[in-house]
Amino acid sequence: MADGKLAGRTALVFGAGSIGPGWGNGKAAAVAYARAGATVVSIDTNEAAAQETAALIRAENGRTLALTCDVTEMADVETCVRRALDTFGGIDILHNNVGHAGMGGPVDLTEDQWLREIDINLNSMFRTCKAVLPQMLKQKRGVITNISSSAGIRYTGYPYASYYASKGGVNQFTVGLGLQYARDGIRCNAILPGLMDTPLIYAQIVGQYKSVEDMQAARHAATPPGRMGTAWDVAHAAVFLASDDAAYINAVCLPVDGGLTARCV
Ligand SMILES: NC(=O)c1ccc[n+]([C@@H]2O[C@H](COP(=O)([O-])OP(=O)(O)OC[C@H]3O[C@@H](n4cnc5c(N)ncnc54)[C@H](O)[C@@H]3O)[C@@H](O)[C@H]2O)c1
Question: Is 97 near ligand 1, meaning CB less than 6 Å away?
Answer without folding.
Answer: yes
